[in-house]
Amino acid sequence: MASQVASPSASLHTTSSSTTLSTPALSPSSPTQLSPDDLELLAKLEEQNRLLETDSKSLRSVNGSRRNSGSSLVSSSSASSNLSHLEEDSWILWGRIVNEWEDVRKKKEKQVKELVRKGIPHHFRAIVWQLLCSAQSMPIKDQYSELLKMTSPCEKLIRRDIARTYPEHDFFKEKDSLGQEVLFNVMKAYSLVDREVGYCQGSAFIVGLLLMQMPEEEAFCVFVKLMQDYRLRELFKPSMAELGLCMYQFECMIQEHLPELYVHFQSQSFHTSMYASSWFLTIFLTTFPLPIATRIFDIFMSEGLEIVFRVGLALLQMNQAELLQLDMEGMLQHFQKVIPHQFDSGPDKLIQASYQVKYNAKKMKKLRTENRLLKQRIETLEKVSMLVTRFNGQVTRAQEAEENYLIKRELATIKQQSDEAITKLEQAENTIRELQHQHSRYSEDFVLQLEKELVQARLSEAESHCALKEMQDKVLEMEKRNSSLPDEENVARLQEELIAVKLREAEALMGLKELRQQVKDLEEHWQRHLARTTGRWKDPPRKNTVNELQDELMTVRLREAETQAELKETKQRMMEMETQGQINNNHLRRAEQEVTSLQGKVQYLSAQNKGLLAQLNEAKRRQAEIECKSKEEVMAVRLREADRIAAVVELQQHIAELEIQKEEGKIQGQLNNSDSNQYIRELKDQIAELHHEVSDKILVSDHLHLLSYFKSSTIWDCRALFYAVTTACCTYALGDSFMKESSSIQKLTASFTQYVFFLDI
To answer: Which portions of the chain have biased composition (kind: Low complexity) (predicted)?
Structure first.
């Protein structure tokens, strides 16, 4: 398949010999210096290249020739027949350069660069690209067929992206077409040669452009050379460190040459990688149409990545005004839709603008060095952080081991304490059993003691309630006295009011003194006036006129004095009104303060009331607990009483059996008179003791029933029961057993009296 694939243009590596034969101007004896005719021919060549690149018919004929040819789609003879006179001149010039490449490259490198910048003819592009990158005789070309037989781990990725590479181009748009197949072959072969890079998106566009110009073996060799010598391999590595360096260098160029645009990009968070990464990865092949991108790729083959920096900065300079007016989304749309079609008329304007950009190679090298140093620092810091992390992990593990040791020690101590507590618990249980055994012996005395303690506790509780109420009453009286007394702030305000009133009184007294002085002055003037008027009829007419004027002056002065007096009275009234207003304001302020203090007291009393209610509830709860305990104790006493009744029944049964035995002994005559009398007396004593125990137990049970009744009855029921019990005791005391039961009756009466007294409280 490699031998069948041909370039879209003429395969010049196979037709170069025929070209040299058909054009005598390309002989080795041709002069190496460019004559004026050559320069004129060069100008014509540039014009023809521009016409060829803008002529769509010629491009379609080139693409059609790719589909209809085998190893060479356009032969030298057919091309020469279709070329005009200018095309023949360009063929002659570029043919001479190709044939004498080594000498021209060494001696006229600048002229070659200028020719490349103005455009390589389409039919010479394949051979010139190979010469520019020195890929015409590479040993790896012989391994290509063997590489195609091998399997690559990147085949699935390559198959997935092939349909996205030049989807509108005739050579690649059909699925499983010849173009897609040769593109897959080249990408697969390179992924096997360079396993570190393998396959990276974007590289397929460069390979696709190479396949448009040359067969797949030569395209593979050129791509390998580009990856090795043109920094593309570093761009396509998985880390993409070189791409980050390019972004950093390009951003520094923007900051230096276009500071306003740089500030705008920073303010909009519009990073350089958002629009410029595809420029470096595909050499503008995904940005511009193929004619423009191919002209830029010509210069890239001659000068390297420098043209990408120049063209990128030129684009930003030409679109700076529009970009400054847009936000992030608008700038993205501008880069995707507007910029690609700005140079449809031709790339000359863009290339000319790109070479007006100042590109400092030394500064770029310096930036590269700075970036490398930063990377080394970052790597060093990462290593240090890894060491610190490991050290922290070791420290953490040591701390955890120490904590585990401490926890184990604490656990052992706790186990020891637990064993000791279990031993103490067993001892306590034994003690409780012994106490319970003793308690069963002295239960009656214990019940009486509990009853006495209960009565005393309730008495003390009632006394504490009374004392609490007295203290609360005293607190309220003290608060009332304190509220009636003026506080320090009120005293200070009253003093201020008193000082203000005294000042106003002093001002009023001063005004009054001034009025009195004016009145005295007026009285003196009036006396003088009277003295003068007494002899007025004796004076001449002129003197009379003067006297009239003096009278009018006195009248005016009198009116002025009256007016001033009225003014003083008005001021005095105003001062009195102001004083009264201030006094009223002070009264209002004091009333508000008193209201606020009363509200605070109300809140305090409500909080105090809540606390007392809580204490009352707590006391009720304690009383309920005590009553529950007493009920439980009463139930226990009742159970013991039932046990004693059962014992009494057994004793009575035993007495009956003894009496039966006695009767049987009398009948049988087995006992003599002395023995029988002694035995009868013993039996009577036992019966008397048993009767005494039974009566005591019955009395105790009655006592407990009465106590339980007292606890659940009102005061009036208890008093009525008290009189009934007293009457019964007196009646019972008239019998023969009064002396025997008097102690129990006294105990019952004393307990009952204490309980009734507590209920009265």
So the answer is: 1-36, 59-79
pTM of the entire predicted model: 0.46
Residue 146's pLDDT band, with cuts at 50, 70 and 90, is very high
Structure tokens at 470: 């007295």
pLDDT digits (tens, 9 = 90+) for 246-256: 999 999 999 99
Say if residues 209 and 169 touch (Cβ distance below 8 Å). Answer: no
More confident residue, 14 or 87: 87
Report CA 39 to chain centroid distance, whole Å: 72
What's the first-to-final CA gap in the chain, in angstroms? Answer: 123
Structure-block tokens of residue 735: 């019998």
- As to burial, measured by CB atoms within 10 angstroms (0-12 exposed, 13-18 middle, 19+ buried), residue 22 is middle
| CA gap 78, 69 in Å, rounded | 12
Summary mean pLDDT of the chain = 76
Ranges 48-52, 456-460, 685-689: which has the least confidence: 48-52
Per DSSP, the residues of 67-134 read HH-SS-SS-HHHHHHH--HHHHHHHHHHHHHHHTHHHHHHH-HHHHHHHHHH---GGGHHHHHHHHTT
Q: Which residues of 237-257 are buried (b: 16+ CB within 10 A; e: fewer)?
A: beebebbebbbbbbbbbbeee
How much is the pLDDT for 186? 96
Query: How would DSSP label each residue in 430-443?
Result: HHHHHHHHHHHHSH
Residue 35 DSSP symbol = P
Give which of 483, 497, 488, 481 is closest to 587, Cα–Cα. 497
Burial of 294 (0-12, 13-18, 19+ CB in 10 A): buried
Question: CA angle at residue 162 from 63 to 243, to 5 degrees?
Answer: 105
- In angstroms, how far apart are the furthest CA atoms of the chain? 186
The torsion defined by the Cα of 685, 686, 687 and 693, in degrees rounded to 10, comes to 110
Q: How far apart are alpha carbons 541 and 552 in whole angstroms?
A: 17
**Burial annotation 345-376 (CB, 10 A radius, 16+ → b, else e):** eebbebbebbeebeeeeeebeebeeebeeeee
Are 221 and 129 a contacting pair, CB within 8 Å? no
